[in-house]
Amino acid sequence: MANHISAKKRSRQNKVKNAVNSQYLSKFRTALNKFNASIKSSNNEEIQKSFSVVNSILAKAAKKGIFKKENISRKLSSLSKQIQKN
Question: 63 near 19, Cβ under 8 Å?
């Protein structure tokens, strides 16, 4: 357990940041699963809608510093290739 005031504060901050980061990661995974389901169903409207949702979530996560910009761009590129295959 932390003994110094600053270490206790850092511990509290880390818990809050971890909770926020987990929420964004969970939102991303859910959106990604919906995107994959729409790819399997081959419904073009649904695919575009779910892709825009994933794109929005990733952009917000990048703005908050949860994912790195290069990582997001690689993921979006991969998803757009899946759309074009379909």
Answer: no
Q: What confidence tens digit (pLDDT) does each residue in 14-55 have?
A: 999 999 999 999 999 999 999 999 999 888 899 999 999 999
Nearest to 35 by CA among 83, 73, 77, 70: 83
**Alpha carbon distance 8, 20 (integer Å):** 19
How many other C-beta atoms lie within 10 A of the C-beta of residue 50? 22
Computed over every residue of the chain, the mean pLDDT equals 92
No. of helices (H) and no. of strands (E), the chain: 3, 0
> 58 with 28: CB under 8 angstroms?
yes
- Nearest in space to 22 (alpha carbons), one of 11, 34, 30: 30
